[in-house]
Amino acid sequence: MPLDDGYYDRLEQANAAAHWLRDFTPRPAPEPYIWHWEQMEPLIREAAAEEALGGERRSLTLHNPAHKRGGGGTICSLIAAIQLIKPGEVATAHRHTATAIRFIMIGSTAHTVVNGEKVQMEEGDLVLTPSWAWHDHAHSGFTNDDMIWMDVLDAPLAGYLGVQRREMYPEDTQPVTKPDGFTAARIGGGLMRGFTDARPERALAMIYKWEDSYGALLNAKESSPFDGVAMEYLNPLTAGHTLPSMSLSLQRLRPGEHTRAHRHAHSVVYHAAQGDGFTIVEGRRMDWTKFDIFALPPWTWHEHGNASEDTDAVLFSLSDLPVVEAVGMAEEEEGEYQEVVGTIG
Ligand SMILES: [Fe+2]
Ligand SMILES: [Fe+2]
């Protein structure tokens, strides 16, 4: 017997839906998209004129065009932003459940304090702010130059799960309570762990200096046909992914190198740290240069190339691989080279 006419109205009133009528169209997946530094730099430098932004965060968030209306992330799980701090400014102390990282682009005259440890931030350095860690940033004022970095947070993931919380510190800054180099000493250069250190933390307020991470790539003896000389920033506590929600990597494309294509279930935010290159996504070529940021959607074919025949190109990247693995959905497929049929950006 067919359902009566009022059935679906009554269903809607009950906040329920008929599974047999469900729409198979997936939620809009993130698009491959590139934010060129040439366009972004004037926009963030223009925001420097707004003095009132000093205490909070003078930061431009990068929203994937597919998510624009919903205010979503750069990819589904992560949001990248470009932040500028002026000489003498303090970005006041707060903490949030969302995990954050900073990758320093321009300037070496600011420091951050994470859970009482002061860390100087220099170009190419990576600083981790684990979930619920107090953090504030300050420009030393020793130069007249603004400092710029990229922030990435797992806020879209935390928002989806409904676990977003945020708290302001009662003062503008938190006191420095730990000696210089506290975390580096605690992990013995990533090789040793103190007997007192069997604490169940999942991430540390790590700093990875550019000379160490890029130095590791220059010293590496192996490379991947899909990523060039690529290494993940290791979590020294677990020897696993960098953070519970993010895997962070640095990859070196040697002069003239052009990788084969692959695709995987995890999505990636890339940041061109050095050089000029291109990434072909589903047959569309994106040309990138230093400080460009681009989004790679899940399960899309991609291959990378260095556009120079005599200098390295280096990509810093963040993916949601740890989350995709945790839910048992990590998958990868290997391919060859794609036919280029168009461009992006
Ligand atoms: Fe923050
Ligand atoms: Fe990949």
Task: Offer a concise description of the structure.
With 345 residues, the protein is of the alpha+beta class.
Description of the structure:
This protein is an alpha+beta fold and 345 residues long. The chain has a single domain, classed as Jelly Rolls, CATH 2.60.120. It has 6 helices and 23 strands. The strands form 5 sheets. A 6-stranded antiparallel β-sheet has the order 1-19-16-21-14-13. Strands 2-3-10-5-8-12 form a 6-stranded antiparallel β-sheet. A hairpin with a 2-residue loop joins strand 17 and strand 18. The mean pLDDT is 93. The site of one fe (ii) ion has 4 residues, from strand 4. The site of one fe (ii) ion has 4 residues, from strand 15.
